[in-house]
Amino acid sequence: MVSRFLQLRKNRPTYTVAREVDLVYANIGLITLGLLFTVVFIVGHVTHILPFPFWDGVSVAHFLDQPRVGLMSHISAAITFGDNEHRPIFPMIFWILDRSLFDGPGPFTLTVMFVLCLAICLMLASLFQRQTSSIGYAAVLAAVAAMIYSPGHFENLIWWKQLHVYMACGAALASLYLAAKVDTSKEATLDRRAAASVALALVASFSFGYGLLVWPLLVGHALFARWRRGEWLILITGIATLTLFLAAFPTAPTPAHGSVLENLMNPGAVLAYTLELTGFIARRIMSFIFPGQAAVLTQGFGLVMLLIALTGLVFAYFGNANADTKLRAAVLISGFSIGNALLTGISRVTVNQPTAPRYLIVSAIGIAATAAIVAILASRAKHPAPSAKAVTAALSFIFIIFAVSFLQSGRHGWNYLEDRAARGAVAADLKVTDVYPLLFDARGAKKLDEGVWPNFVIRAHNSGQFLGFGRQGTSLADTFQIAPEPCIGAIDALTASKSRAELFEVTGWARVGSQGQKRAEFVMFTDSNDIVLGVGLVRKNRPDVAARLSSTPGAIKAEQPAMAGFTGLMRTDSFNDLRAYATRGKSACRLKVGPIHPKP
After folding, report:
1. Cα gap 480→62, rounded to integer Å
2. Stretch (H or E) spanning 373
3. 97 and 106 Cβ atoms separated by less than 8 Å
4. Per-residue pLDDT for the chain (600 aa), expressed as one digit of tens each?
5. DSSP letters for 434-480
6. Burial of 362 (0-12, 13-18, 19+ CB in 10 A)
7. Beta-ladder partners of 569
8. How far apart are the C-alpha atoms of 507 and 525, rounded to whole Å?
9. With the CA atoms of 212, 92, 418 and 436 taken in that order, what torsion angle do they form, in degrees rounded to the nearest 10?
């Protein structure tokens, strides 16, 4: 036994080298996977970008469409603009630039947002930098990128308005990161980095509500990190107080978001909401493994993240690791994520679920910071087994698993959001904005009628962009080349609206080509003179159509045959020779359907 032990001790260097080699190969694999999925995810988001206004983006579009005289008029309006409980002054700069330079909103704003995502990835990955090798850092960065660009963020990354979320998160993380790096023994470093941290905190605060949480974190950090120049603590506290007042004062209460006081009377529900939103990044995994207990287990995962953050807090400010700037930065960023989950719970617990896709960014940032705490504490263990490098590689693999777990829900989400937004756009085009109140409520209806939608349609037409909307009353032949051969499809139902005369919802399916070889993009409804009466977006999954096409004798292989269903809106008072055309690109073909009549 003794000789065996001595032999193992003698061979230990060889084992260590072999383990390091294995880690190199593992990290190369992680880099490959992370980059591959990141590219796939980005392509998926970009190809599903929504180029038309929807949801409460109408408020911003309405603001941009208002005529103003002079630079000061623009500045004054931007400063006083309130979007729910948010004050997006700094994002407004980019929205105005996009509108004035590129006739947006659109690609320019989204490009800025994707660059901000990259900055967030770099800051989160840098928390691991000292605990791993250069190739390990590259693996962490690729894995974090996969998580930050994951399809789970579809509600943010294809919606230009969500720039304000990423500006707030990016500026907040940079502010906290710089604050953690302040060297209190050097006054120049304290002044320079503290000033930059405060400036970034202001950008975060006046971009989105998330940014307001930076201030209590900064005050707490300055206090417990013992910044030896007390005037900085006083200054930060004063600026924080003024910022919170200015951020809240111009905004009107939003009854639809629920009562904060009522929510505070139910602390159990707020806590459950907070923990579930904190652990949201693990939700898809929990749903797959334990579908009946996903919510409870996600809350449990959030509780674990909270306990790790509290452990890191003790070590970062009260233990013998209290000079570790990386650990302090990880704790502050983790606190930013958990704090925002709590604030969201206080304001939204009675309104929506903590699993709304646009909230995933909070949990994604939190898990990266929490994992960094684990890696840093592992590197400080007296007998680290496994090593911090191995822990970091394992955490990177977990990041990728979390990112990929949202692939299916993201794919469905892209289609769902496109469908909701496009149907809302059709409703706006027909001046029936009350049909989809989630997208265009009473306030949005007036703003749309005053200029948002007409101006958007004009811009789309002038740029040669065709979205299928803004064509009411025009001739189909003005836009499309009508093919002599018909294509296949069906009208399943034509249902009259209960609130609007002469308005009908049309459902059915359509495919382009005599055998349905290709997917249609839109279905246009016309009268006997081919004047457009309405439009539908082909976005629904129809397995029955796929089965029908595949069983047709001599049928060729269809492209995405299940994606054939549509829902559209049409306004008419006559049902004589109504027609339906499936369109793809600039070509249209008439559907082989019988007489179109509403349900009795």
Report:
1. 31
2. helix 360-379
3. no
4. 445 434 444 454 444 555 666 778 888 999 999 999 999 999 988 888 776 666 667 778 878 877 777 777 777 877 778 777 788 989 999 988 888 888 776 788 889 999 999 999 999 999 998 888 889 999 999 999 999 999 999 889 988 889 999 999 999 999 999 999 887 666 666 678 888 999 999 999 999 989 999 999 998 888 887 776 667 778 888 888 888 877 765 555 565 566 667 777 788 888 999 999 999 999 999 888 888 888 899 999 999 999 999 999 999 988 766 668 899 999 999 999 999 999 888 887 777 777 888 899 999 999 999 999 999 998 877 655 567 888 899 999 999 999 999 988 877 788 777 777 777 777 777 776 655 555 555 666 677 777 777 777 777 766 666 666 677 788 998 889 999 888 888 888 888 877 677 888 888 999 988 778 788 888 999 998 999 988 888 878 888 888 777 766 555 555 566 788 888 888 888 877 889 999 988 899 998 877 777 765
5. TSSTTTS-HHHHHHIIIIIHHHHHHHHHHTT---S-S-TTSBGGGT-
6. buried
7. 505, 535
8. 11
9. 80
Which residues have C-beta within 8 Å of that of residue 161, sequence separation ≥ 6? 55, 56, 57, 60, 105
Looking at the chain, the number of H-run helices and the number of E-run strands are 23, 9
- Looking from the CA of 509 toward its CB, the CA atoms found within 13 Å total 19
Q: Name the residue among 284, 23, 281, 315 with its Cα closest to residue 148.
A: 281
> Is 482 strand, coil or helix?
strand
Tokens representing 110? 């989204």
Tokens found for residue 331: 């704790």
Return the SS3 of 227. Answer: coil
Query: Dihedral, CA atoms, 219, 224, 226, 231, nearest 10 degrees?
Result: 20
pTM of the model as a whole: 0.83
Reduced to 3 states (helix: H, G, I; strand: E, B; else coil), residue 180 is helix
Distance CA 106, CA 53 (A): 10
Task: Give the C-alpha separation, 16 to 184, whole Å.
Answer: 39
Angle made by CA atoms 511, 513, 514, in degrees to the nearest 5: 105
- Report DSSP letters for 82-151, one per residue: -BTTB--HHHHHHHHHHHHHHSSSSHHHHHHHHHHHHHHHHHHHHTTGGGS-HHHHHHHHHHHHHHHT-G
